[in-house]
Design brief:
Elements: E1 19-21, E2 26-28, H1 30-48, E3 56-60, H2 65-78, E4 85-92, H3 99-113, E5 116-121, H4 122-126, H5 130-135, H6 138-142, H7 146-164, E6 169-171, H8 176-188, E7 209-210, H9 218-227, H10 243-258, H11 262-272, E8 282-283, E9 290-291, H12 297-307, H13 313-316
Parallel strand pairs: 3-4, 3-6, 4-5, 6-7
Antiparallel strand pairs: 1-2, 8-9
Helix pairs in contact: 1-9, 2-3, 2-9, 8-10, 8-11
The structure holds zinc ion (2 copies).
């Protein structure tokens, strides 16, 4: 849990503070902290033009603390825009004993906020649950990690859902930490980020993805969920294996704890040096989703899984970067 400072007064209202924001020196009581998060999300949305007044917003909800917090904040903000609408989508990858709890939490919270909730499964979209592919040994034979396939298919599933539900924008719960981690992973693997993550990018056939939490540190999202009494899933995924991201996350968290404000500095510096992507996106030969190649990565993996062929070397590299988000 983030640092608690019970005896200090809230810098805004003078009540007992529950959190001190080290990078700004401001202390917050519970109510002022929650308000501050909501105000900063509103500010991020208007500063970067993430959402429009008549958007049909698809919120990707996994059932974890970040996505359930985003659902709460957006449900609150969206009320002020009568021409907009909100639909929550969860993807059921088919991970027994893990996903069921998260789906339950997501559907309860949607009911509480009066938000329509839809669930799409890998089974119906791609013909197989993740469990079956792991158990059947397909992923091993293909030299693919469960998280690699899962990440690519989840992204595709969200796009398919967005089209079916006529969403005009997809909102994801990526935080400041998530985005900086992804940029660092790109750089450590030898390529500079090609596009800013979570900013509205329009284009032929593209449903833009936005990250309203892009300026909120992860620990503040966790505290927001906790103070809002949002029940969220704490069990880690049994397939979790993202060791590279864990290393980068640990390093950045330690660095931020010692030098507060570093994550904001990194985000700003990296994004001000991103050069726009060259070459237009085209439609995938199989599914029509926008891609920089002839066949999108999700279809490529679907073909590989169904044919049980050996995946080429390039597929062995876990796929991260802007397309992951
Ligand atoms: Zn206060
Ligand atoms: Zn495709």
């Amino acid at each position: 849990m983030p640092s608690h400072v019970g005896s200090k007064p809230c810098s805004v209202c003078g009540d007992a503070a529950v959190y001190r924001q080290v990078y700004s020196g401001v202390s917050f009581c519970s109510a002022c902290f929650k308000e501050s998060i909501e105000r900063r999300v509103r500010k991020t949305i208007s500063k970067y033009g993430l959402l429009r007044e008549d958007d049909r917003i698809l919120v990707a909800v996994s059932g974890g603390k970040d996505s359930l917090s985003l659902l709460k904040v957006l449900a609150k903000i969206e009320r002020a825009f009568p021409r907009s609408s909100l639909v929550a989508v969860s993807i059921d990858e088919g991970i027994a004993g893990y996903r069921d709890e998260a789906l339950q939490l997501a559907s309860e919270l949607c009911r509480r906020f009066g938000v329509e909730h839809r669930v799409y499964s890998f089974e119906e979209l791609f013909g197989s649950s993740l469990d079956r592919l792991v158990r059947g040994g397909e992923l091993n034979r293909l030299g693919l990690g469960a998280c690699t396939l899962c990440g690519v298919w989840r992204r595709k599933a969200i796009s398919m859902a967005a089209r079916e539900l006529s969403a005009t924008v997809v909102a994801t719960a990526h935080t400041l930490d998530d985005i900086v981690q992804t940029y660092f992973m790109d750089i450590l693997r030898g390529s500079f980020p090609r596009a800013p993550i979570g900013l509205r990018r329009e284009g032929e056939g593209i449903i833009p993805r936005v990250a309203p939490f892009r300026q909120i540190p992860e620990e503040e999202v966790v505290l927001y969920a906790y103070l809002s009494k949002i029940p969220f899933q704490e069990t880690p995924c049994p397939n979790a294996e993202n060791s590279q991201r864990d290393m980068v996350r640990n390093f950045l968290a330690k660095f931020e704890a010692k030098y507060a404000g570093s994550l904001f500095a990194a985000l700003k510096t990296i994004e001000s040096n991103i050069r726009p992507l060259e070459g237009a996106l085209k439609a995938c030969q199989f599914c029509g989703e926008p891609t920089s190649r002839d066949v999108c990565r999700a279809c490529e993996l679907e073909i590989a899984v169904s044919r049980k062929i050996t995946v080429g070397r390039e597929l062995l590299r876990p796929y991260i970067g802007v397309d992951d988000i």
